[in-house]
Amino acid sequence: MTTDGLTLAVSGLTLGLTRDRRARPLVEDLSFGVARGEMLAFVGESGSGKSLTAAAIFGLLPAGVQRIAGSIRVNGSELTTLSERRLRAWRGRDMGLIFQNPLTALSPSVGVQAQIAETYRVHKGGTRDAARARARALLAEVGLKALATGGDSYPHQLSGGMRQRVMIALAAACDPALIVADEPTTALDVLIQAQILDLLARLQRERGLAVVFITHDLRLAARYADRILVLYAGRAVEEGDAAQFFTAPRHPYSRALRDAIPTIPATGGRLTEIPGQPPEPRALPAGCRFAPRCPNVGDDCRRTEPAMTFDGTRFACLHPCAKMS
Amino acid sequence: MTDDTTRAQPTMHPGGLFQRRRRWPATFGRVRADMGGGMLFLALVLFSWIGPLLYPHDPLAIHTHHILAAPRSRFPLGTDALGRNVLARLMRGGQATLAISLWASAIGLLAGLLYGMTAGLGPGWLDRALMRLLDTLLAIPSLVLMIFFASIVPLNETSLALLLGLVAWPGIARLTRNEALAARERDYVRAARQFGAGRLYIARVHILRAMLPLVIVNATFLMADMILGLSGLSFLGLGIQPPHASWGGLLNSGAGLAVIGSWWLIAFPGLAIFLAILAMNMLGQGLLARLEGELRE
Amino acid sequence: MREDVVSSGLRVEGLSVEYAAKRGLGRTRGDTHKALADVGFILPTGQTLGVVGESGSGKTTLGHAVLRMTPVSRGRILWDGVDLATLSDRDLRPYRRQMQLVFQDPYEAMNPRMSIGRIIAEPLLLAYGLDRHARREQALRLLKQVGLDESLLGRRPRALSGGQRQRVTLARALATAPRLLVLDEPTSGLDVSLQARVLNLLRDLQTDKGLSYLFISHDLAAVAYIAQRLLVLFQGRVMEQGPTDALLRHPAHPYTAALLAAQPSAVPGRAPKDPAPAMNPVADPVPGACVYYQWCGKALPRCRMEAPDLTSLGADHLVACHYPGHETTSIH
Ligand SMILES: Nc1ncnc2c1ncn2[C@@H]1O[C@H](COP(=O)(O)OP(=O)(O)OP(=O)(O)O)[C@@H](O)[C@H]1O
Ligand SMILES: Nc1ncnc2c1ncn2[C@@H]1O[C@H](COP(=O)(O)OP(=O)(O)OP(=O)(O)O)[C@@H](O)[C@H]1O
Ligand code: SF4
Ligand SMILES: [Mg+2]
Ligand SMILES: [Mg+2]
User: pTM of the predicted model, to two decimals?
Assistant: First the structure.
């Protein structure tokens, strides 16, 4: 993988607990890249490290977690060596973050037009009027024409779907190169979910944004993303083209994630569960992390941690599933 | 649209009596405010009850040769206009002041809890009636109320505690009622109802317990208010009647003489009142900070 | 009449729930908001009825109303032939334990100060007055039933994962050996692997115990997995009702079709060509028109003049649309 021309290039990212230095890392040796106009989906169970990775890109790791190793480059510039002040300038201007719960990111006491305008002015300068006009245009662009005209509205007056659109407008306000959306629709119903993701996909195409889309639903990943990266217990286990991925996943975990989802029309049989639970970061098994739950497991899996190999997709498995399943 | 914005949150800042209170820092240096306050209060209690055992002097004895004696070895805190031992009176007065305030807070707390729970958990009409009544009571200034009752009952420790308790309960009642109203719409309370829980069970197991920390915090603030209130009554001549001592009474009777130089008559009772109120405020503020920290987690 | 045929089970007729309207611009005091209007369905013993609809369509309200947890304005709730809607709180008590609710938000549904053991044992205490020892024994049995470990007994809800919480509330609901469970979005907060586990568990429980489920969700795939019949709600009104298979294969109502189209189906790269229907909140419904008129991609002039009744579309299949399943060219 060359990092030239990539909007986001992460390599060797390792995140661990600040206090407990002997514990295994929460995210280990993660490398990926996203090009201009491309959407990469992060998929994995709860606790697999998706949100931590997103936070690390923005330099917003929670207290108690730190970056141990790895580089993060946006448009070729290394972010990990930047001071907090320089990094703050990057955030919002060159990259935007969208959370699952927009209320945590929006100020409750400031109107949404004003919030977007302020963000724009802080990063791009210009007059108040110009910033306000820009905010209105953005709101209209994300389908909130009613909020773009007339008086300003406060976040609590909006529905969950409208708030998430405001978040997208806010994230896109300064023409960033990169947007990271961390489970942006988990709190919303299917209709609103489809709208929000359609909107994100449209911005990605029309503005040539690089997008990292975090979800645990492989269907959504396959429908919207160009490439998918599957995380398990803090490690990438498979990465590949979205279309190919859904029909023929190679890693047994990817396949298990796919088969756990009920289909329409229902097949009538039982859903395939993934037995057991993901390991606690403190008690990772030796060898392959997925071995205790894996249907393909062999003795060698419990001894050696498989490295990434390339065969159609990149995957880390000693006994991969057949190419066409 | 989404109900998360409209769902009732437990109120952290009760209305009425307590809303005006300024916030104190929760820590002073490395000592936690609640620990410091508790220790200070304990010191005052020891002074009032154990003190007389170590310094056995009659607070009512009159030493005619030592009128208005300044503090020195025989009378460490001096004597008053009748030649009574100020230290002994301060200890005895501490017993009266602290005991009355404690009882008054307990009465106010209990009455308030009962009233508030009844309003909060009862049927809607009862709630409306009780709250209307409360508003009417609150419309009468508490001072007027106290003067009225103080003028028709004999003033001793019991009646004073009841009297102060009488003005103390509305704040707690309103707080309790609001908390109960919010709590009874919580899903876990509705679940209990679906399992067949009655009002009493819900009040006891789910609501009272959830409210207890907040109520305890407010009870400490209430205690500070009671100490101040009792002292205020003494100033109007409605407190503990002479010759018996209370901190407020000592302060009141010493006020006139302090201007002609007997500073010890007001300095020591004033300090005692100040320390007691400080102790309760530190305790309350510290507990509140602890509670908020717990809720945030 | 088929009344005797389904006298065992749940039968709801003309159920309406009105809330006091949120006061806003142009609304006066005393206005009511119809959260449910004239909803009816049959849920035979041992079966599952799926209730689907977008956020705010009235799904939770329906579940609560059936259990009389929210005041019912009109309608009948027939449980084994007894109309629960008319019973007093006291007369309702024996029925309460036969019908239980698994709340939409499992964390909110547990007292954060209680241990998991106490939470699960609460209904045992309230409904049967069991002593401490018997309660513990039963709590263990219930935990095992939902596939949880007894080490959880001493923990607080805060220390549990989302999937564990969901199963604890399920275990608690099972404590009174109910015959009907109202499941309010039991999997929407879970990741796919936990969702699979909970759905399988629910199906096993149903087969074992002959439970009836009112299964509320906006995820059609989850509903399709577990429900024999579907009820589609929009703004508190029934849009379509019928056998799951028929509904999903040939959605007759445009709203059902819209829900289906928005369903995340794993067809890579399909999104841009097939955008979701616009469901922007429109202020108030047009009086006299079909409630779905402003959103409908198939509306014709008649839809604006006249609200469609719920009409039969073959065996057990009801739909409230003038042009069910038709390809029309919208006037919008
Ligand atoms: N502040 C923290 N301190 C210690 N450990 C943490 C912290 N935040 C997260 N973790 C741990 O890091 C791991 C990864 O967490 P992360 O939030 O990235 O998961 P996720 O994939 O986003 O899951 P979800 O789907 O639930 O959002 C988990 O095991 C979690 O317990
Ligand atoms: N206690 C209440 N008072 C007033 N209005 C209410 C109340 N509860 C619900 N509503 C309103 O009734 C309508 C239906 O709400 P309900 O919660 O039943 O929807 P839902 O389909 O369960 O939505 P979701 O998928 O978001 O849970 C909404 O418009 C809601 O705002
Ligand atoms: S009746 Fe008309 S407006 Fe209503 S759903 Fe059918 S086609 Fe659409
Ligand atoms: Mg996350
Ligand atoms: Mg709901």
Answer: 0.80
